[in-house]
Design a protein that fits this description.
about 20% strand, eight-stranded mixed sheet, 7 helices, Rossmann fold
Amino acid sequence: MRGCNINKKVRRNKNIDKGKDWNEAYKQDDTPWDTGITSKELEKALHEEVIAPCRTLELGCGTGTNAIYLAKKGFDVTAVDISQLAIKKAREKSEAARVKVRFMQAEVPNLRLHGEIFDFVFDRGCFHTIRQEDRQRFVKMLTRLTTEGSIYLMLCGNAREPREDGPPVLTEEEIRETFSRYFDFRWIREFRFVTTDKKPDPLGYSCLMERKRVNNPDNTN
């Protein structure tokens, strides 16, 4: 998914830790992405009326800030994260906020919610942590969980500004190459992630996509 130079792909993805213990990260508060602040790109999508209350899936929900925000706006939200501790904290936050969110511990791209289809999928930094060899499995997972017209908002690191301490990064070409078979792009625009780090916030891509009509996507190569 990252251009055509394999060595460059490896260098750009060096911030992906294949053996990362996500629970330990939450125990140690080593989670600069988990700010407690609602994603501005998500807020923009609502304000621009790109999405409206519907069945929603959040991938990599962390401690639930964005899922809770959507639930307060009337969305029917299922939110998943690989970290059991993050899910525990998210449930506590949703109870305190008195909103209903279905939080689940799960790992992508192995997520299977049999028979469930979502009109909107939100992903703040989940896809860009997926190993290169698993990216098409991730896309196929999305096709199982969405239908024609479903919206996917994906936020990822931007390869135009690679950093030693920032998120994994992608090029615009890689993003289009990975998703264009199953999704039309409404926009790809740059933004800045908000983090808890004191360093300048990392550059990202905000990618809004709409699911195409594809027959039997699981059977395509």
